[in-house]
Amino acid sequence: MVIIAEKKIVIGYNNHTVQSDKIRNSVWLESNTQILKVVEIDKYCIICNGSNFKKSIPSNVMAGGIPARIIKNINE
Asked: How many other CB atoms sit within 10 Å of the CB of residue 63?
């Protein structure tokens, strides 16, 4: 399950969209997040509000910022 916040989430660029398999299960996307076409977000991630992703994110992390970076590892 992917949880997406109420406000806009920009995925891709110039009307190109990200394939659904690029965002894995159990991901929480906050509002105003921008994800470029080449980025993959792995399982069990929390993506902070207003983040801008240019690089892929591994599993079990909280990530955010402009550009986005790993803020904290999340233990299961």
From this structure: 19
Domain ranges in the chain are: 2-62
Half-sphere exposure of 22 (CA within 13 A, CB side): 15
Nearest to 29 by CA among 54, 4, 10, 63: 4
Residue type, 54: K
Q: What is the pLDDT of residues 1-40, one digit of tens each?
A: 555 666 655 555 555 555 556 778 888 888 878 877 778 8
Nearest to 29, CA basis, from 11, 57, 49, 55: 49
